[in-house]
Design a protein that fits this description.
Length: 351
Amino acid sequence: MERNPFVINFGKVPTQYISRELLIDEIVQELTDDAAQNNCFMLTGTRGSGKTVTMTSIEKIIAEMNDWIIVRLNSERNMLESLVGKLYDSREFISAFIDASVNLSKFGIGLNISSKAPVADIESALEIILKEIGRQHKRLLVTVDEVSNTSHMREFASSFQILIREDLPVYLLMAGLYKNIHDLKNEKNLTFLYRATQYEMEPLNLTLIAERYSSVLKISYEAAMEMALITRGYPFAYQALGKYVWEEDKHTVTDRVLLRLDEALSHYVYKKIWSELSETDKWYMTHIVQKESMPVSELLEITSKKQNEFAQYRARLRDKGLIDVSTHGIICFTLPRFDVFVHNIVKERMI
């Protein structure tokens, strides 16, 4: 039996991955340009929007270049110490340099050189290592997935700001939810992040989705486009719908397929998104999902609210990627079958 080409695992690049080639090419070009203007890049979007997969694709391209070193960090751990430790393990020339020139025994890294006093400050040690990386005509790309506003992340970002001021060969690529990126940027000592290049994970092209569905599932383009419209270009929904239609004998969208899709969206993504909303956010969303789109004036009328009362929630829901307000005076929800999810939540509350 042929293996299902669609998967709903997070993080791994699926077989039927639709690449965000333009975005990836732009970031890779910026990173590798000899006269690079930016050292920091951010990918933001909702859960399941393809941030991690896009970051992984960029890492794979950069990893093929001999003059680059890539280190992945976790924002929940001591990032400076982790970075130095991973650099020591990454390349022979770095470990040899540290063993010969820098005593990092205080941090449990490298050999204990009796003739060298232990380095007391990990940030100073990192500067020394980065200068050696520069002398070797190499560059360092640090990637951080699932960025959150932790003390370790704030400490690392502050140090990174100093490193780029010193014109050291270090670059940072971060991926995170809208709120987490926003909170980090608003830290009083980290406003330099507002100057960093930020990319939002926009919906996948529906034509590309339809073409892929038609080719892989061996169905008509018209049927494939109907499937694409269901996904609304949301990467997780593209994978999940493809997976469940593949498992149908006639490769068609059935009630069973839609039920399984709704269960997957709810379990893997929507319940978590919903839990992070305030009660007022949720209340507004129960009204917004009543229609595919509606005038803001109609929403204000049915909620008995004024424009200024709704403004902050409008901004919050937009920044969370839940509503589209790009058309003046019109509001609509963005995530596929989110109306079904919300209606089910409301029914459960009534039971």
